[in-house]
From TrEMBL:
Pfam families hit by this protein: CBS, Voltage_CLC
Coiled coil: none
Topology of this chain in the membrane: Multi-pass membrane protein
Cellular compartment(s): Membrane
Superkingdom of origin organism: Bacteria
Naturally occurring in which organism (per UniProt): Snuella lapsa
Ranges annotated as spanning the membrane: 25-43, 63-82, 112-133, 160-186, 193-215, 235-252, 273-291, 322-339, 346-367, 387-408, 415-436
Alphabetized UniProt keyword annotations: CBS domain, Chloride, Chloride channel, Ion channel, Ion transport, Membrane, Transmembrane, Transmembrane helix, Transport
Keyword Transport among UniProt keywords: yes
Phylogenetic placement of the source organism: Bacteria, Pseudomonadati, Bacteroidota, Flavobacteriia, Flavobacteriales
Protein name: Chloride channel protein
InterPro entries: CBS_dom, CBS_dom_sf, Cl-channel_core, ClC, ClC-type_chloride_channel
Length: 595
């Protein structure tokens, strides 16, 4: 930042400190962050839209099926070139990366995230990559919230709150659903539900929605007007739909992790691009509805126009056969998860949220068509079941049942379907939770002990920096060191009462405590006869710097009763953690969480 700008910022901060109460300034920042998050989301949508408009020209339409194969590969290649030559940084999945920043980086998100997804996501989606824009929108918004907090020197707790405000803003701007956006921020980012955090979320959400209306007018992504009312006789069908969406959510998650692990075995990004690009092109050629985000599928199914939703296929299929239509809709459901994850594996940038809704809409519509055509004269609302299917997939895949309920309720413009929304989302979430403990956003973070939850004690431990509690100023002994040298070079010069013993490769062998040598330390006859290897004893509790979380470390202190435990890093001795220092750091961090 130029010196003039720094000087102005310094003057503003001094003025702000004197004239604006801290809470009021947080409200102002939440409005600003909501506006910027809304602006970022609008920019993402417009850039993607303009790219897609190019491919609707008559020249491209003449070769549409062939280009379904080519365009996604071109988009992925452009993203690859930008990453390799300009950004030279990793662009993670928006929501997962944001959760990691909250839990392990104190909410500090690098500045390049302000523009990285803004450039690469429209290229991925605009050229037909089978992913969504919600994740990148959250990534851009979260980076805005984090860096705004840093610019104005806000504390860690406020920085995390502003990230949540930005996420709510991105969601509200994308769907024009401010209530669902607030619930999304609370449910996904585990924000405390308190008045002090709720008001900023409300302000950010409203600010983002107003921004979206200002730039996009009343146009919304999902256009639906509820016509068919909820029928009590349909409850058994909704229960079955909940079971089906739950099992499909498990399938979605398994496919996501399976394909992700498959691509991880290729270290070369070029190989991932080649394999993934060819796979995506092949899928899109045979199943064109997988192209891009998939809003066309959802909107057409909600209107009851399944022919437009399925579109033109490379085969001359008889779409007057309803069972063939059902089969194609189930195929879209199955392959959307594969196409989406393959896009990620090939290096594309996008989100999971919208593909989840696409799968849910196709599954719900196919389910209703099966009920209406099995020959028992049932007649359920296909549009309602399409909506409820979206709810079930969202609740299961994202582990966000409340977000799913309120998003669909807001989209429909009322709460007529609230009962089936709750039934399906609850069943789907319960089934998915039974088989997969965490969502695709959070599973890897949870396995590493880096997931922020509503458990305040666990969150405090998670954000503790292990490097700040490790003490390295211990005098190290070698195994062949004599007792006399131990007393002269270690005991006499240290205020510590224990000394680590390591070999020439700095591998930890054991420890000598002052109590171990107190009974012989004044026996001069033993000074040249007894060495460290005969005096040391193994430490049964060892902390692995690379594997143990702060929660694991606290458990080791509880179970062992030890006051000091050695730390091993990359197989080498690194230092010690003392219980007193760990508890002091814990208490300080707890104050930051509760004040």
């Amino acid at each position: 930042m130029p010196s003039n700008s720094k000087s102005l910022l310094r003057k503003f901060l001094i003025w702000k400190y004197k004239h604006i109460p801290e809470q009021n300034f947080i409200y102002i920042l939440s409005i600003l962050v909501g506006f910027l998050a809304g602006l970022g989301t609008v920019s993402l949508k417009n850039l993607t839209h303009y790219i897609q408009l190019l491919f609707e020209l008559n020249f491209f339409k003449n070769y549409q099926n062939s280009l379904y194969f080519i365009f996604p590969i071109i988009g992925l290649l452009l993203v690859y070139i930008i990453k390799q030559t300009w950004l030279k940084k990793h662009i993670g999945h928006g929501i997962s990366s944001t959760l990691h920043a909250i839990s392990k980086l104190n909410g500090i998100i690098p500045r390049y995230n302000l523009y990285a997804s803004l450039i690469t996501a429209p290229l991925t989606v605009g050229f037909g990559g089978s992913v969504g824009l919600q994740g990148p929108a959250v990534s851009v918004g979260a980076a805005l919230g984090s860096n705004a907090a840093r610019l104005f020197h806000m504390n860690t707790k406020t920085r995390m709150l502003l990230i949540g405000c930005a996420a709510a803003g991105a969601m509200a701007s994308m769907f024009k659903a401010p209530i669902a956006a607030i619930i999304f921020a609370i449910e996904i980012f585990s924000l405390d539900i308190a008045f002090t955090s709720l008001v900023p979320l409300l302000l950010a959400s409203v600010s983002a929605v107003v921004t979206s209306y200002f730039f996009l007018g009343t146009d919304i992504l999902l256009r639906f007007e509820l016509i068919d009312k909820f029928q009590i006789n349909d409850i058994p069908f909704y229960i079955v739909l909940g079971l089906v969406t739950g099992l499909t959510s498990v399938y979605f998650s398994k496919v996501f992790f399976g394909i992700t692990n498959f691509f991880k075995q290729f270290e070369s990004r070029a190989k991932r691009l080649l394999i993934g690009g060819l796979a995506i092109g092949t899928m899109l050629y045979f199943i064109p509805p997988l192209y891009g985000e998939g809003y066309g599928i959802m909107n057409n199914l909600l209107k009851g126009d399944h022919l437009s939703a399925i579109g033109t296929t490379p085969f001359n299929l008889d779409l007057s056969n309803i069972w063939l239509v059902i089969g194609l809709l189930l195929g879209i459901t199955a392959f959307k998860a594969i196409a989406m994850t393959t896009t990620f594996g090939a290096g594309g940038v996008g989100g999971v949220f919208i593909p989840t809704l696409v799968m849910g809409s196709a599954l719900g519509n196919a389910f209703s068509k099966i009920i209406n055509n099995i020959g028992f004269h049932f007649n359920v609302s296909e549009s309602n079941f399409t909506l409820i299917g979206m709810t079930g997939l969202m609740a299961g895949v994202l582990h966000a049942p409340l977000t799913a309920i309120f998003l669909i309720a807001e989209i429909t413009g009322g709460y007529e379907l609230f009962v089936p929304l709750m039934i399906v989302s609850a069943i789907s979430f319960a089934i998915t939770k039974y088989f997969i403990s965490h969502s695709i956003y959070t599973l890897k973070l949870a396995e590493r002990g880096e997931l922020m939850t509503h458990d305040k004690d666990q969150n405090v431990l998670m954000v503790l920096d292990i490097d700040k509690v490790i003490e390295t100023n211990f005098i190290i002994l070698s195994p062949d060191m004599k007792l006399g040298d131990i007393l002269k070079k270690a005991v006499a010069k240290s205020s510590r009462n224990h000394f680590p013993v390591v070999n020439e490769d700095n591998e930890f062998l054991g420890v000598i405590r002052l109590d171990d040598i107190r009974h012989i330390m004044f026996n001069a006859d033993l000074y040249d006869k007894v060495n460290a290897s005969s005096l040391m004893h193994a430490d049964t509790n060892i902390i692995d710097y690379n594997k143990d979380s702060m929660n694991d470390i606290m458990d080791k202190f509880k179970t062992s009763g030890a006051w000091n435990i050695p730390v091993i890093k990359n197989g080498k001795y690194y230092g010690y953690i003392s219980k007193s220092k760990l508890l002091t750091a814990y208490r300080r961090q707890l104050i930051n969480f509760t004040k």
